[in-house]
Amino acid sequence: MQSETKSHVDQVKSPSGFPVAVLRFDGDIASTSKDAVLGAYQALPKETTKLILLDFTGVDYINSSGIALVIQLLIEATNSGQKVCAFGLSAHFNKVFTMVGITKYAGLFPTQAEALAAF
Amino acid sequence: MSEPISTKVEVRLPTRMGYEKVAMSTAASVAKLMGFPDERIEDLKTAVAEACINAIEHGNRLNEGLSVGVVLQAGADELEVKVIDDGTGIKKQPAAPDIDRKMHGEEDPRGMGMFLIQALVDEVEWVAGADGKSSYVRLVIRLDKEAQ
Questions:
Q1: Chain B closest CA to A68's CA: distance in Å?
Q2: Which pLDDT value is given to residue B2?
Q3: Which of A29, A31, A59, A64 should be substituted to probe chain B, the one whose Cβ sees the most B Cβ atoms within 10 Å?
Q4: C-alpha atoms less than 13 angstroms from C-alpha of B103 in its C-beta half-sphere
Q5: Which of B100, B84, B90, B93 minimizes the C-alpha distance to B119?
Q6: Is A12 in contact with A87 (CB distance < 8 Å)?
Q7: Which of A64, B18, B87, B130 would disulfide-bridge B59, Cβ 3.0–4.6 Å?
Q8: Would you tell me how many other CB atoms lie within 10 Å of the CB of residue B110?
């Protein structure tokens, strides 16, 4: 019933020339999305990946279990000295992420270009 | 004097994760017919989805032999949604989530559903069934919230 979450990683550079891993999600983000969210993140090499962007452009539905997966990703990233930003959330999920406090640990931006400029 | 306008829509969901989206879509359709703005419809969708997830996971404890009832009552200027399960109801409401405690491993990253429901609708109450089951959560979202 839940649409399967797909994810893939693109490697880009910030305007300052730093390498950035972009995790692009597509589909619902719910309790069934662990592999697509945490699995994709954990497959990134920690030694060389210091800046991470989460792309929610292709995501229509995120529930509290999905938000919990994003928080788990942020915990691991913080413990590994990585910086995380996100973009592409709808206005509603921008509000929800702000309400639960995620903005304290990950900047939210409307577009990839604006998010990259923050690195 | 004209009769008050009231319309009831009922949906019965299987106790299976993902089917909360059926209730969410139904609630969104009713709210759209009532003239709610898109922003409030998005609030309602998340609140209804979280109420159904709680009913599936905690109320019915994922028992697929049970179902979740969703009753939407559209009034003239408000929409009431009841989500009914076969659980005993909640004993006490969890504390509001604390992102710092979550980030430091002092609090489960999950457990935000009830907080989101409370934050996104105008009124909410959790009612334990008198017979130890048929508990429900009742949500109300008002059409004129912006004017209040």
A1: 5
A2: 59
A3: A64
A4: 15
A5: B93
A6: no
A7: B87
A8: 16
Which residues 64-83 of A are in CB contact (within 8 Å) with B?
64-65, 67-69, 71-72, 74-75, 78
Q: Return phi, psi of residue A46, to 5°.
A: -70, -30
Give A-chain residues touching B50 at CB under 8 angstroms.
63-64
What does the block give as tokens for A92?
Answer: 């509603």
Say what the pTM is: 0.93
CB distance A53 to A83 below 8 Å:
no
pLDDT tens digits along A48-91: 999 999 999 999 999 999 999 999 999 999 999 999 999 999 99
Q: Is the ipTM of this complex over 0.90?
A: yes
The C-alpha atoms of residue B1 and residue B5 are separated, in whole angstroms, by 12
